Amino acid sequence: MYLKPESEKMPTAFNGRRIAFFSVSLAVNIPTLTIAISNINQFSNNPPFTIVCPEKEVAQFEVAFRNFKNVRVESENLLLAFDEFRDIAANVSIIDGLSLESIARLSWYYQQALKIAFLFRSHTPSVNLVMWDADTIPLDHIEFFDSNGAILYGSKVEFHTPYFITLNSLLGCLPKSYLAFTLQFFACSYPESLYLIKKLRKACVQFECENEPRWVARAILSSAISTHKTLEGALFSEQELVGIASLMYRPRSQVVLRYLRGGFTGLLSERQAKAVRLMGFRHISYENLRQISDRRQPWIALIAYMIKESVRQRLFYSPLWHK
User: Fold this and answer.
1) Mean pLDDT of the chain
2) Measured between alpha carbons, how far is 267 from 295 in angstroms, rounded to an integer?
């Protein structure tokens, strides 16, 4: 399902800053990530791309991407090992009277901590960073930055209120209104990441003695637990955190971005992917890849899905946050 861009290759620098991509991935997503990086290379002129994965899967990723000259693979242990994250969760849970046995989604929070930790470790004045979800395939070129920083995209249908309750507790206040930033990617310029670090350190001053990945993990876990008294369910989003912080740093309008996520019964062919792109959807996500990897998406089901999502994403407006 590789798509050739219909326009010329786009530049990978704005005001002297290069664009670099990264993903946090498991080996199960190698098929989608391979296509995603192939398309990103075409759309964005082979930008540097880092894949962060479990230590035991590094060799598998290196083999899979050995022909991609712009790709480097690194172990998640270089940021924060899962055992260490689990210990932090246990410590935070004990402090707040929770049992670690009740935490069902610890690995989900772990990958969010890895993404924020990688952003903070890798940001420099000369690089703009884009996090790209490993189960998502771009179908068209997306402008991630302009001369002022990240372009803020929004979704009309992804607003999940618990995310923003947690962020309101963590950041102290939120803008009056906005669309969701759950888009399967985030973009962040250096000044925006500095602002986010400052906001988090102010909120988590008690963790200043920790190294950066550890205090990021503590900030995520403690903010969710102190707000909701549990870690069960989806209570924190790194995409919403980065998006909200960027909006607070420089208020501006969001651009609605349409995409298809999760509603597939099989893999798309190249012709089907082109049809999806022509309908105005910018990317697709295979969230159930294990279940559909050996099937092809029926055309009738795809057309029905696109029509339903076209109506829903054009007409439906998510609730906006009001303090």
Assistant:
1) 88
2) 6
